[in-house]
Design a protein that fits this description.
heterodimer, A: Rossmann fold, 47% helix, elongated, B: mainly alpha, 1% strand
Chain lengths: 378, 300
């Protein structure tokens, strides 16, 4: 007990000291800079998710400053560590607000982001996360000041549903999943989106047992439901069994699935039966010159390959600074307007933001198996 | 009504798959009262042998039918050799030991074989060629039942008939039944018990290998783990039908297949296992010896 008390006291002192230090450096900053807050897990066991966002911000800011800054002012980075904990994130947010930071790149974890967003909203600040994927952050509508450069968890389901109803014009859809967290989660979103739209109806919603020897009963059930398309949430072993048994039973039903199926093993196993199957997968940006440049800069400056969400953070930094430039001020309404109306070139491609704050042009693409390969469907 | 028949046929296929594997379980149990947990792995090894042989033969340009025949033959021979060796290595030294020791040895063998194939063949699913060609005369009902499914159903029936005949009407069968009733007495009567038991394992492994080839070419993919899942369900089928009884294994497999199929079709596939195992529990409550099992009094 004594030990833990001492430990706790030590942690409190350390945190207090940290704040004090940041506070001093904050007051020392001259007024004619534009401050870019970078908040997230910069230490602790999730630091590997947060550090790349600092590095991305540093590289982007360096480039802007060399070109003369934004709106004629130099950009200055203010980092705050939330160690991915919601209770710490609220404090760091208050800290950034009191320093007059207009835009924040962060936070990293969904829970911490949520805790910080209310404070930013009250302080009229903009936050943009490179990595928080929780759907509610944008969809709840509670945080009009929040943006992100990563697709939310339900983006795949949204893409699948839109593709099925709008592009393929399917009217009756069977939603099947493998009862796992990932597959069922996606299937639940797909079902919800289908029910919300009037374009198509869900004629069947069921889970299959992973690893079962044979799926002919569920295949018959799909046939009886008269579905013209299937949205499957799960991984490729079950998907290939279902697809093969459907095709062998002479069913041509459209099969749409997720990045658990967008795997070359699926094509290898299902062979000719895989032809025509659709699957969503992360957009390939490796050929984008900006991506190559961002990765090269990282290697030259830090001597290693970039970490997780580096490109998302890089894109977020560019999007934020670009929006301030276009808005002509750091006023949050003006910046919000610029973010939702202006398009900007980033390593993730040409992006803008929708009214909820999700990036348009980021995230997943639809692929189709053609001649034994996944080909992006434009 | 058509939907009923569709579910009936898918239950029939699934049940036949279980039955084909269950036959081996039940044979071995019938003779030496050992649940051979490594049986599912024999099935898996049969499928892998067929995959390798079929790959080589198709490179050499053999035609479809001869590939199927030769691959199945190779699988049968190879799996039988495994069955024979496993019995000699893992079960025979424990024949006088308590029954639980042999059971644990069987589980150990199962884990060993799975991991051996995992190391030798990776954990990825490998595509298995459709060795069974599409029959033209089945085209009008291809939406109901495919050629591979027909072959599985027919093979299960044929294997069941052959095994029943073998046990009832041949000298070997008589020796098997004698061994099953009383090993020591059979030995005194001049039955070579060791050889009978070896034969039982060879026959059981051969049926597993045939199952492996046919089922893998129906499903179209294999990995080291297929034997475990199929083995659990086949074991359930054998218990359901009355372990030790050859027709019981087939009946048990079919009842299990139909239960799962109709549960999926009329209720929800989320609960197919729930229905299958509820049925097992119910049958074991009211008929502990299984549907076709003989109730034997405990030997004193």
């Amino acid at each position: 007990m004594v030990r833990s008390k001492m430990l706790r006291r030590g942690v409190v002192v350390a945190i207090a000291a940290m704040f004090a230090l940041v506070g001093f450096s904050g007051t020392a900053i001259a007024q004619d800079t534009i401050k870019l807050g970078v908040a997230g897990a910069h230490s602790g066991d999730l630091a590997s998710y947060g550090i790349p966002s600092i590095r991305a911000a540093e590289l982007v800011v360096k480039e802007y400053n060399e070109k003369g800054g934004v709106l004629g002012k130099q950009v200055e980075i203010v980092t705050e560590d939330d160690v991915c904990k919601p209770e710490v994130a609220a404090n760091t947010a208050a800290k950034l607000a009191s320093e007059g930071v207009p835009v924040v790149l962060g936070h990293i974890c969904s829970g911490a982001t949520k805790a910080a967003l209310g404070i930013y909203k009250d302080a009229n600040m903009i936050a943009m996360s490179p990595s928080a994927t929780n759907p509610a952050l944008t969809q709840s509508g509670d945080y009009p000041n929040f943006f992100r450069t990563i697709a939310s968890d339900d983006a795949q389901a949204r893409l699948e549903v839109d593709f099925a109803t709008k592009k393929l014009g399917l009217k009756k859809i069977a939603v099947i999943h493998d009862k796992g967290d990932y597959g069922k989660g996606l299937a639940e979103f797909a079902k919800k989106f289908l029910e919300e739209s009037d374009d198509a109806e869900v004629v069947l919603y069921e889970g299959v047992t992973p690893g079962a020897v044979d799926y002919s009963a569920i295949v018959q059930k799909i046939k009886r439901s008269d579905a013209d398309g299937i949205i499957f949430g799960g991984y490729h072993p079950e998907a290939s069994k279902i697809v093969m048994q459907m095709r062998k039973k002479r069913m041509g039903t459209v099969f749409i699935s997720d990045d658990g199926v967008k795997d070359d093993t699926f094509i290898k196993v299902a062979g000719d039966y895989a032809e025509g199957v659709y699957a969503t997968g992360p957009r390939d940006t490796s050929k984008n010159p900006l991506t190559q440049k961002a990765e090269k800069e990282h290697r030259e400056t830090y001597g290693s390959d970039p970490g997780a969400f580096y490109l998302n953070a890089y894109a977020a930094a560019i999007a934020l600074l670009n929006a301030i430039e276009k808005a002509g001020s750091t006023d949050s309404d003006a910046v919000t307007k610029a973010l939702t109306t202006e398009w900007v070139e980033t390593p993730l491609g040409r992006i803008s933001f929708d009214e909820r704050g999700d990036a348009i042009g980021v995230g997943f693409s639809m692929y189709q198996v053609r001649d034994g390969k996944y080909v992006e469907v434009k | 009504m058509e939907y009923f028949f569709e579910l009936f046929f898918s239950g029939l296929t699934r049940g036949s798959i279980y039955a084909l594997i269950a036959l081996g379980y039940t044979m071995v149990y019938g003779i030496i009262e050992l649940i051979n947990f490594a049986h599912g792995e024999i099935y898996m090894i049969g499928a892998f042998t067929a995959l390798i042989v079929a790959g080589v033969l198709s490179l050499l340009g053999f035609n479809e039918l001869s590939i199927l025949a030769l691959a199945a033959l190779a699988a049968v021979v190879y799996s039988s050799a495994y069955g024979y060796t496993i019995e000699k290595m893992a079960y025979k030294p424990l024949r006088k030991a308590p029954r639980l020791s042999a059971l644990i040895s069987a589980i150990g063998m199962s884990i060993f074989l799975q991991n051996y194939v995992l190391l030798a063949q990776t954990s990825d699913f490998l595509p298995f060629p459709s060795l069974i060609p599409d029959f033209h005369f089945l085209e009008p009902i291809a939406h109901l039942i495919t050629s591979a499914e027909v072959v599985i159903v027919v093979t299960t029936a044929v294997v069941m008939v052959i095994l029943s005949f073998l046990i009832k009407f041949t000298r070997l069968g008589k020796a098997m039944r004698a061994t099953a009733q009383d090993k020591d007495m059979a030995m005194l009567m001049g039955v070579n018990v060791n050889r009978v038991i070896s034969f039982t394992f060879i026959i059981g492994s051969a049926t597993a290998a045939i199952g492996g080839v046919l089922i893998a070419s129906h499903i179209g993919m294999i990995n080291f783990y297929i034997g475990f899942i199929a083995g659990i369900k086949a074991f359930t089928a054998a218990v359901l039908g009355g372990i030790g009884s050859v027709p019981g294994a087939v009946l048990g497999g079919l009842v299990l297949g139909w239960t799962e199929s109709f549960a999926t079709g009329y209720v929800s596939s989320d609960y197919e296992d729930v229905f299958a195992f509820t049925l097992l529990v119910l049958i074991l409550i009211f008929r502990p010896e299984g549907i076709l099992g003989r109730s034997t009094t405990q030997k004193v």
